[in-house]
């Protein structure tokens, strides 16, 4: 029995459970050919309402976390075996034909006849939208509304940064979609498709569950690469400053993903202040598995680089460490908060400079 947390930061409670159940329904159909069954079956559910928690009664899935498979001591062969299964899952989610009742971009719910239809995106509380561009326009405005209410961000109005953001939304946003020839494509997006949300059977090596559909949505296939695959070097980022060795390495990885061609020989991983650098062998193995079965990926999505830049701007508008109330509650040092504010502004200004605004 899963109970929706009414205090979860930034979650739209009105359709949160409905969205998850609808996505579970679609994912179950898309992945029915994969054995063992990896999508939890739903036996009952109830949406949240005034004074009542939402809930889902679903399968308790077998298997153990994938931590040991992606540990530094595991062999590349072991990791590749799991990556091969992850690629097959992603391919099936991308290829599944959505019901005609789903007309928009964003979240899902059920109509009075039980059909799955478009709804607000639970992680935003806005939508659905009539196009991918409108989904980003709506989410940028929602992020600015959140920044308006934040005492540290103050809507990014100091130093005239807000004017620059508004100008980009008004004059620059549409141009970022001009090269995206597949802008009408939509797919089931898990949006947290990482090893943390996969279980496997150590005896057989088979993935036994894909879990946690809290952030799942219907968006362009590129969006999965903006939100998922981070532990195996598979996440695709927007513009990256290359002013330090860490940034230079990430930029090199971005180029490799964008072209589908990795350096030969592979670079030596760099140790960074934030921990180990890029695991180039693992990142290349993931790319190879995607190529092997022709999964839609950064190197095949024309215009994904400009779309990723918009997504980078979106993330920069609401720095998590200044927005999340739990983090702020645990970190009360005002000096540190102001330092985070300065870092956030530097990042946002750098993205705006890159976009030409």
TrEMBL record:
Q: Identify the residues that the record assigns to the Aminoglycoside phosphotransferase domain, covering every copy.
A: 14-229
Q: Which InterPro entries does the record associate with it?
A: AGP_Transferase, Aminoglycoside_PTrfase, Kinase-like_dom_sf
Which lineage?
A: Eukaryota, Fungi, Dikarya, Ascomycota, Pezizomycotina
Q: Domain of life, per the record?
A: Eukaryota
UniProt-recorded name of the protein: Podospora anserina S mat+ genomic DNA chromosome 7, supercontig 3
Coiled coil stretches, renumbered: none
